[in-house]
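Reopening this ticket.

The earlier resolution said the output was attached, but the attachment link was broken on my side. Pasting everything inline this time so it's all in one place.
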Amino acid sequence: MLRQSRLLRAGIIVASATTLAGCGAMTAQNPDGGLSPINGIATERHDHLMLFGADVVAYFTEGRHVQGSPQYSSRHQGVDFHFATAEHKAVFDADPTAYLPQYGGYCTNGIAFGIPWGGNAEDFLVHDGKLYIFGGEVSKQAVMLDLERNLALADKYWAEEVAGNNSFWQRTKRLVIRVPHYQSGDEQAAAVEAARTRTGG
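Inline output:
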């Protein structure tokens, strides 16, 4: 009975999410190809634009978020990328996998809970030569409380549940059937504040 109730709730959430988000978002985030799902949007020129058009090369070369331009665009495995300069486009085209954001550009914190959701182009970390995106500063700080453990969890859930699956279905599943270590945003914010108090930061 409990299982049927959960499945019913999941169905209602999916129907609501689909209605609210629209088919465009579902399609944009779930391209055909090896990079699915992605934190992407549809534009007039591109169906699957990664990270709202952020220049993924700039995170590595400039250490900051830089918005790309449709003038300098590339497509890799069915996903579109924008760059701020022709040089950045050329660098990406020479070795795309070196510059791809981890977990399809979704919030690293969310993926550590099996939830492909969120991810702001402005909130990021380059660590061990990889680009990680976050849903906000608190989300990033929560992951940083135990970086290696949280990245290991994100790697696990991405590989076992998220990669290659529909982002909306996966999100719904893990919002209803939460992972054992799940924490709400408020709980994470409290943990970040407690750590800041302990360290006097």
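Reporter confirms the inline version is readable. Confidence is low (pLDDT under 50) at residues 1-8, 10-22. The CA atoms of residues 74 and 81 lie 5 Å apart.
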